[in-house]
Design brief:
By secondary structure, the chain is an alpha/beta fold. The chain is built from 15 helices and 17 strands. Strand 16 and strand 17 form a beta hairpin. Helix 8 packs parallel to helix 9. The chain is globular, with a radius of gyration of 21 Å. It starts with 16 loop residues before the first strand and ends with a helix. Bound molecules: pyridoxal-5'-phosphate. The site of pyridoxal-5'-phosphate has 15 residues, from helix 4. Keywords: Aminotransferase, Pyridoxal phosphate, Transferase. One of its GO terms (cellular component) is cytosol. This is Adenosylmethionine-8-amino-7-oxononanoate aminotransferase. Belongs to the class-III pyridoxal-phosphate-dependent aminotransferase family.
């Protein structure tokens, strides 16, 4: 019996990817797919970036790996410097890992250890939001609010509580101002902290722009500032999960810069390695680092491949492309064009309820009824049909069934490479519109 690998679906027959060129992936039959979602918001530089490839070759010629228990490396130190240089105020230290879930696990453990070191051992509770995804390892899964992902593993998960997301399309009531809506949903955090007992609450974790579970849903202006104030009032740490929305995806290196908020910790991954290497990072405030440094001097955590030289070299080259080659303003400009093209092609579509997002991070929500916003019957699996139809027309996009009012609804997440051209934006939107219509009649 040959030892075939298996993925999330044990039955799916997938095409073999054999090459990549700019914004396109190429399969073994020579078919080209426009990568409209960078896989899962990963490939922010496309698939054949010369500078990143050259940096990887150069690093491999020097050193592939040195264990962080024994050595640090120029590549890892340079990466930490650059990430902190660009980070929101107060963020001073970097803990390198290999992906998003690892970054979130590290954040939860660092929060717990911080409170032990400063003499507040009762703090252990985590509050997060429904309709959020923070990873698939057990701590990160416990933090995430997606019931479908959590359900069968619930006996294994640490206790967390979930408040409402900031989801204007479905959450804001008629006549309610955007500001009042933001205040109302942020207020749920304060109520939950008080319900649990502030002295027991360790951290609140949220994605500034919600990705996989909701389809590029940004918080309304002022919401995150309010959340920051509430955390400060109760001594609760604010962890912003930018694994998907960070690293320039929204047009700013850290999405929270646009909200004017400095968290205590930030998690990043995906775009940091841009798919050239697996890498993630946890960034934390100087205050958290200092408490541990002055206390035990040892963060009780670690993974074999943390700070891997090849991954750090790739990330340095990716950051240099994003920051030194003018890609942030480009993301903002191309993002506006993508938004305009989506609105023009799909804005009046009878089954498109909402088009939203920031930068090159956009979401299209499908509804059965535009007036009532009623989602499609989940049994129809519209999102899965859109994915298949899109691949048939040569488009990679990231459709998902989110959780809407306790039911699963459908959206398509778009996160194309930052180098996407105007023509490619046109192609993306054309192919997406075709795929949606084919999926609706399938
Ligand atoms: N956090 C967020 C916001 C994510 O979107 C993801 C992945 O989609 C993760 C964490 C987990 O990252 P990884 O799949 O690299 O473990």
């Amino acid at each position: 019996m040959p030892g075939h690998i298996f993925g999330r679906s044990t039955r799916a027959k997938l095409p073999f990817a054999v090459g990549g060129e700019g914004c396109y992936l190429i399969d073994a039959q020579g078919r080209r797919y426009l990568d409209g979602s960078g896989g899962a918001a990963v490939s922010c530089l496309g698939h054949s970036d010369e500078k990143v490839c050259a940096a990887l070759h150069a690093q491999l010629d020097r050193l592939a790996f040195a264990h962080t228990g024994f050595f640090t490396t120029e590549a890892a130190e340079a990466l930490a410097d650059r990430l902190v240089e660009e980070a929101p105020e107060g963020i001073e230290r970097v803990y390198l890992v290999s992906g998003g879930s690892e970054a979130v696990e590290a954040a939860l453990k660092l929060a717990r250890q911080y409170f032990l070191e400063i003499g507040q051992p009762a703090r252990h509770r985590v509050i997060a939001r429904r309709q959020s995804y923070h990873g698939n390892t057990l701590g990160a899964l416990a933090a995430g609010g997606n019931e479908w992902r959590r359900a069968q593993f619930s006996p294994l998960l640490i206790e967390t509580s979930h408040i409402s997301p900031c989801y204007e399309y479905r959450g804001r009531e008629e006549g309610e101002s955007v500001e009042a809506y933001g205040r109302r949903v942020a207020g749920e955090l304060e109520a939950e902290i008080n319900r649990l007992g502030p002295e027991t609450v360790m951290a609140f974790i949220a994605e500034p722009v919600v990705g996989a579970t909701a389809g590029a849903v940004p918080a309304v202006p002022g919401y995150l500032k309010r959340i920051r104030e509430i955390c400060d009032r109760h001594g609760v740490l604010l962890i912003l999960d930018e694994v998907m929305c960070g690293m320039g995806r929204t047009g700013h290196l850290y999405a929270c810069l646009e909200d004017g908020v400095s968290p205590d910790m930030i998690t990043i991954a995906k775009g940091l390695g841009a798919g050239y290497q697996p890498i993630g990072a946890l960034l934390c405030s100087g205050a958290i680092f200092d408490a541990i440094d002055r206390g035990s001097g040892f963060f009780q955590h670690g993974h074999t491949y943390m700070g891997h030289s090849m991954a750090a070299a790739a990330a340095n080259a990716v950051l240099s492309r994003i920051l030194d080659d003018g890609l942030l303003p480009r993301v903002r400009a191309q993002g506006q064009k993508l938004d305009a093209a989506l609105r023009s092609r799909l804005g009046q579509h009878p089954h498109v309820g909402d088009i939203r997002g920031r930068g090159l991070f956009r979401g299209v929500e499908l509804v059965e009824n535009r007036e009532t916003k009623a989602p499609f019957d989940p049994a129809r699996r519209l999102h899965a049909r859109i994915k298949t139809a899109a691949m048939e027309v040569g488009l990679i996009c990231y459709p998902m069934g989110g959780t809407i009012d306790g039911r699963r609804g459908d959206h398509v997440l778009l996160a194309p490479p930052f180098i996407i051209s105007d023509d490619e934006i046109g192609e993306l939107v054309d192919k997406l519109a075709i795929a949606i219509d084919r999926a609706l009649v399938a």
